[in-house]
Amino acid sequence: MENQLLPGIVVLNRNYFPDSEMSAYKVGATHFALEIIKCLNENGSLLGIILYKRDETLSEPAIKNETLNGYNTITLFFNFRMNDESVMEAIDRAIVMLYRSETDNLIVYYHTDTIIQYHPKHIPACLTHHGPFVEDFIENYSLIEAYKAFESNEKVHHMLEQQKRGLTTLLSNENIFVLQHSNMQSRFLRNKGIRQDLIKAIIPPIIPITVSEVNLGEKLQYFLKNISENELILTSNAARIDYFKNMDLLIHSALELTKKNIPVKVIITGGSKVDEHKREALYKLIPENLRYRFMFTEKLSKLELYALFKIMKRKGIFVFTSRYETLGITPLEAVLSGVCTIMPDSDLVEASRFFPQKYKFSPSLEMLVDKLNELYFSKDYKTNEVNNYVGSIISEENFKKSFINMWSEITTIVNEKKYSKSASCK
């Protein structure tokens, strides 16, 4: 049988689909979906995109066909109170509108498992889990800390129920594969009974961009002005500032370095305008006489982020302090852009597995301070050592190769199933 790649449709939350390629992402995993869209499109295998959006005013699902960012797109409006069958039928209609042929002759890729329960069972599909499995987080921390991390008791229980439904769907449908970039997620799924042969691993699509001059904003530009040769810039950048990111640890480590007479400047970016109270809470951790050494701003656009990385090269360190991370896209973007980056030495931080031991720290204040102190005085943060190491594993070429291989594997399995079914019917 000829193994021509099956065409694909990508399903993504409408709220996370950016207005432009360089917009700031609401969640880090948006980058993952956009690179898969790009890869399928370059390979001539992209049929279109289905964007889903909750609308609590509707009693029945509705679909709208339009062109967004140059892609043939259908938006599905629905809510979780609707009948499962009606939402499933709406998704089926959307797929047919994008692919006017046999609907078992394609693969539908779901950016996450939010609506996988509504996927039409006869159509091959795959999905990626990006956000943490709440149950796994609770097992490693506690229910109380989960309430704190997700910032809502109600959200925790909603996600537990939603993720339970998603797992039930995976366990009951061998037509759905898991496209996984995280060993953490893969372990959890296997422990829940998902067969290993249905889990396909790929290299995460972290592809840095080159930027010219970009306006970082007056305050940030001023903060970075006239950095002396012996000053050390520390930064951490995220889509959100929350319990997971553990930014307190970075602040406390910077304060300890000042006690050692190491001149530091700290930049933390994350959250939106409505999260100003979170940034204010971080400022309150800092003695007033040292606050001039710290700058906290809203999350940066993609161009702004890479402009900051350009300035940071050989001048500073990206300090990733997350307690629990199913990947860690931004620190990987930083290290692949030439910024010295350090990671918690923890099985609960996925990106850590791509880093050499020298650029990891045991997740405690004392050990982080020791690591920063070591890199500062050795000047190793000015070298390309960690960048070259991570770059040998994660690259655009390696991502595309692993993705096409995975898509090809699923194509083969789907074609063999169809062939076997056809032969048994004769």
UniProtKB/TrEMBL annotation:
Keyword Transferase: yes
Keyword DNA-binding: no
Top-level taxon of the source organism: Bacteria
UniProt xrefs under InterPro entries: Glyco_trans_1
Pfam (any one): Glycos_transf_1
One GO MF term attached to the UniProt entry: glycosyltransferase activity
Domain Glycosyl transferase family: 237-345
UniProt-listed GO biological process terms: lipopolysaccharide biosynthetic process
Key words of the record: Transferase
Name of the protein in question: Glycosyl transferases group 1 family protein
Organism per entry: Paenibacillus macerans
